Amino acid sequence: MRETDFVSGFARGLKVIEAFGEAQPRLTIAEAAKITDLDRATVRRSLLTLSELGYADYDGKFFTLTPKILRLGHAYLSATPLPALVQPYLDQLSEKAGQSASASVLDGTEVVYVARASQRRVMSINLMPGSRLPAYCASMGRVLLAALPEAEAHEILRRTELKANTPRTKTDPEELIEELRRVREQGYAVIDQELELGLCSIAVPLMNARGQVVAALNIGAPAAHVAASELAERYLPMLKETQGALRPLVQ
Amino acid sequence: MRETDFVSGFARGLKVIEAFGEAQPRLTIAEAAKITDLDRATVRRSLLTLSELGYADYDGKFFTLTPKILRLGHAYLSATPLPALVQPYLDQLSEKAGQSASASVLDGTEVVYVARASQRRVMSINLMPGSRLPAYCASMGRVLLAALPEAEAHEILRRTELKANTPRTKTDPEELIEELRRVREQGYAVIDQELELGLCSIAVPLMNARGQVVAALNIGAPAAHVAASELAERYLPMLKETQGALRPLVQ
DNA sequence: TCGATTTTGTGCGATATATGAACAAATGTC
DNA sequence: GACATTTGTTCATATATCGCACAAAATCGA
User: Model-level pTM?
Assistant: First the structure.
């Protein structure tokens, strides 16, 4: 790609949108400039543009995003057949298991939820399509990493900040690679409170007819309700069933 | 705002993202140019920029959005306290009612889902946060329109393409304004298969402590299961309860 | 297979944007 | 209340983008 095939004003604007987040629901020009590491004048122009287009509100001091910004993500969710395709299966799965069921794909070092059927809140975090979790300590992340060539998985782990969310979190890259091998072999991943205390989950890969892994499916359960060691026995059959039903339908 | 405070390259790029959608999951440069009504060279630069940043994939012919694009909408969902706040209440509500429960806000002529607890699929359309429905024929839309000054609601209806999705859809602006008055007075809106045959719903406004309407809550049910005339009797009490519980918590 | 049609890539002049410094206004501090 | 600091805004100019026109490539139909 040539230098002139890149619209830097567009790239800067997207960076400004991403500056908003859980910790910064509203931003001043200076704050957004600091987060994005862009010039204040540039950030101001991007924010005023967002505001002019209705993607942001401006009260003279703070900018906040408006729901119109959801159109951008919705362009993906509705354009990609996968979320709509798996949703009814997740609903079934969730009802049958009496637990939350989700589907996700990998984006960099993170797992991105593309569909979810929630039974009731068991996590402190609120997950919805678009939500992200670090791949190394999520069951779907393990499954998706295991599907990659080992060198690539290694590279992703190298780029990840491997922090111990709980005392049980595996943070040693070698141990994780070893775990990925196990996951690849057995065809599923179990997480026992590595992301959050009290939460276990089990995930399987979702493959297309050609055997390529296109996403992951999981069931999450409170540790108080189901021991991690029972997860496979209890939920693996229905996950496998869903996996098999979806296989000829995706891609 | 001055002319020079607007970054048109950014605005054009956002338009290109929105060109993707259900009917157009993958676009060539020429297609995107036609949809956005932008110059091909401009669209090409925007798409290559998206691809360079990892927001899109390019196979030399077609561009498709990647899940990374969800970061943009997620910036809103995680930055706005409302979705996370109402989600547990929707889960409860949904479980208690045995039907889907959702929360939405108004964006232009459309209702945008910001949170949802689905019980099982009853509609042909798959709703998720970010999904949009025309306000005039959705229960939450009626409630949100009713909360506006009448002139503003009128203006929105004027801008809306009032099409009859089903034989029951109300499409006459005067009739709709009259209906909005009724909704305002009774404090809830009932839709009887105006959006899709076989689907009814009931919605109430979600107000903050100051009495300002910040969103709408609804319960949707298959017409075969619950007659529209029974909706209020059956679900209004629990909707009101949720409304009351959330009132001191929002904004 | 060939020509017609559509789509894509590129060079260039006109136009729009980014930059960084300077200033003004607001905010925080003592 | 005065000083220091941060923040928002403006401006001139260097730089980058836009959109047109044309060329090249791909696609389509007969």
Answer: 0.87
